[in-house]
Amino acid sequence: MDQIRTQRLPDTAPQLGRLPLFAGADPLALARAETEARCEDHAAGTMVLDFDCPSTEVRLVLRGGPLRVLLRTTGGREKIVAEIGPGGFFGELAAIAGPAAPPSAGIRALHQVRLCILPGQAFMDLVLASPPVAHRLLAVLAERIRSQNRRLLEYAALTTRHRLCAELLRLARPRPPELGGGLAISPPPGRPELAARIGARHEAVSRELTELVRLGVLAVGPRAIVVADEAALRREVAAGMEAAKRLT
């Protein structure tokens, strides 16, 4: 049984107003929303929202996490499509247009997380009463559509090798100068996780990682995947896109 603890937001702690999404919200609408909000705490590894659980509530990450957004294929495999950290949110599409039938995604907590949960109508009332919030929500939705379109293009047009290179570039973050600078992914994701991110088998991902290490593009260790040659990774992705164009 998933470990969940629920409580109402106390009147003395207007936490909704501290979230980036609600900056500049109408004060009266914000106060009304807070009377309907509640908190939930989820332990690491629990399903915050299961695949077969329709909901119109909007969940916002107060602290902890991240949460992982998963899709399930017809064969039962899970595909990682996004991660949501503090200040992030999900469920807004169901609040706007009603729940998908069947529900389109599952959400799992990677680490302990505290969520603020708003009924869909309370969320929409707050958004519609607050133009800055509505504008911010539209900007977030637009970026999510762009990101999804990029991933769909990669999945349709690129080989496993090129999709892996693109995903590694997305995951990589700058390293401190004292560690040598450049880019790295720390902690390093395992082969099954990378496979779930790009829609491939982990055996194929393992082969491609081994080849990228052999070519000196990556250095894989227990604490990080270090991008030894960022330019080479970017050339791989560009070459894959160029090859796809020639086939169309």
UniProtKB/TrEMBL annotation:
Residues 60-144 form the Cyclic nucleotide-binding domain. Signal peptide: none annotated. SMART domains: cNMP, HTH_CRP. Keywords: DNA-binding, Transcription, Transcription regulation. It comes from the Bacteria. SUPFAM superfamilies: cAMP-binding domain-like, Winged helix' DNA-binding domain. InterPro entries: cNMP-bd_dom, cNMP-bd_dom_sf, Env_Response_Regulators, HTH_CRP, RmlC-like_jellyroll, WH-like_DNA-bd_sf, WH_DNA-bd_sf. One of its GO terms (cellular component) is cytosol. GO terms for molecular function: DNA binding; DNA-binding transcription factor activity. This is Crp/Fnr family transcriptional regulator. It comes from Roseicella aquatilis.
